[in-house]
Amino acid sequence: MAYSEKLAERITELLKPQKKLVIKKMFGGICYMLKDKMITGIVEDKLMIRCARKDYDSLLEKPHASVMTFTGRPMRGFLYVAPEGIRTDKQLQKWLDVGIEFAYKSPPKKKRLNDIIVHC
User: Fold this and answer.
1) Strands, E, within the chain: which ranges?
2) CB pairs under 8 A, 24+ apart, for 14-20?
3) Confidence grade of residue 29 (pLDDT, cut at 50, 70, 90)
4) How many whole angstroms separate alpha carbon 77 and alpha carbon 79?
């Protein structure tokens, strides 16, 4: 599954001011991470945005936003934004700000047992 490289270039440029931004190719697309949290990504030509669960329903009411069903089921806290909703950098930045806010307001990820390294 290909993703829009033009959209990736726009996102990368707009996210340049973010410290410690991580860009990963995943699931045939690309995602952007801050503070170990996925904030946005691209699936084909759609923008994927991570949002706080409390904001999910109100964000779904915005034009061009839809439920993310990447796995075949709705994924609460993840939205798709159609290309028509991110034509300008101003529109795109508003959506990116949703993902950035998610990363900075979410609690840190809990370490899994297999993530802990013990030195003997």
Assistant:
1) 22-26, 29-34, 37-43, 46-50, 65-67, 78-81
2) 14/89, 14/92, 14/93, 14/96, 15/96, 18/100
3) confident
4) 7
Partnered with residue 78 across adjacent β-strands are 50
pTM over 0.70: yes
Q: What is the mean pLDDT of residues 9-28?
A: 92
Query: CB-based contacts of 55: which residues, under 8 Å, 6+ apart?
Result: 98
Distance in angstroms (rounded) separating the CA atoms of residues 72 and 7: 24
Residue bearing the bigger pLDDT, 89 or 75: 89
Range list of β-strands (E), 78-118: 78-81
Residue 28, both tokens: 């045939």
